Amino acid sequence: MNATMTSLALATVLGGVFAAGVLCLISLVPRWAAPGLERRIAPYIRDITDPIGAGPVVASGSRQFVRDLLTAGGDRVARLVGGSEQLTRRLAQAGVPGGAARFRARQLGWAVVGLLVGAALTVVLALAGRATPLLALVPLIGAVGGALACDLTLQVRARRRLTRLQEELPAVLEFLSLCLAAGEGMSDSLRRVAAIGAGELAGELRVAVLEAGTGSTLADALIRMAARLELAPLTRGIDQLVASMERGAPLARVLQAQADDAREDAKRLLIEHAGRSEILMLVPLVFLVLPLSVVFALYPGVFMLQLGLG
After folding, report:
1. Cα gap 184→179, rounded to integer Å
2. pLDDT value at position 16?
3. DSSP states along 48-81
4. For residues 183 and 171, is the Cβ–Cβ distance under 8 A?
5. What residue numbers bound the domain in which 103 lies?
């Protein structure tokens, strides 16, 4: 059994080295190494496609070949799994560029890395003479763990970005109200905040201003931004702002009222977070400090009774 597993481990190592060499040779073929059409024209339309300047860096050679393979695999996985509105919404909330197919490609890459790590661990254990039949499941567990880790990372990133957006909302609304009170229009105020601001919400406003400048109305651009993020305070503020723009209500007062409401929501969330943290602080107190205190109090007496000195 051990001899068979050792032979399989050696065959895996040699096959992996051979496959890596073949992939390196294929990546040098001009058809694979040349950049695609969208990568050749992207630098000339960056102000429209990537106004923030945070687009992906164009790679070349073997790195580009591997990226193209993962993209093609991600497209197939996305077609098999089907379109997911929840995934698209989560990508927008996390600020991850690209659609679901691109995320599936990244998730496939994480799964491949987990598979390779599991295979390497299996080979090492097999060569060390610790081979068991269950060892064959380690690569599969690594692949599944890599895919789940990629999805969990996206969820954490989306949650943290939504928190930052909610924290930045009162300041942005107050700045907009000050610009409107100074006599500027709504479009100019949004453009000023988007140009000066450096947070997550300012980046979303840049996208909305760009959409408004390329044929869409300002109200539609703001509504699409709110629908894309699905942040309750932001959605409520944009709905009232759009209603005020349509009815001719004073926008400065509306924005100031929305800023006050956003600050109250932030205070409420802070109190709720403090309450949850207080409960979490009781976990080490109840399960670690209190048992140790009981042990320190009772152990000397029990020890003295066992010795017959009590």
Report:
1. 6
2. 72
3. HH-TTS-PPPPP-THHHHHHHHHHHHHHHHHHHH
4. no
5. 2-30+59-161
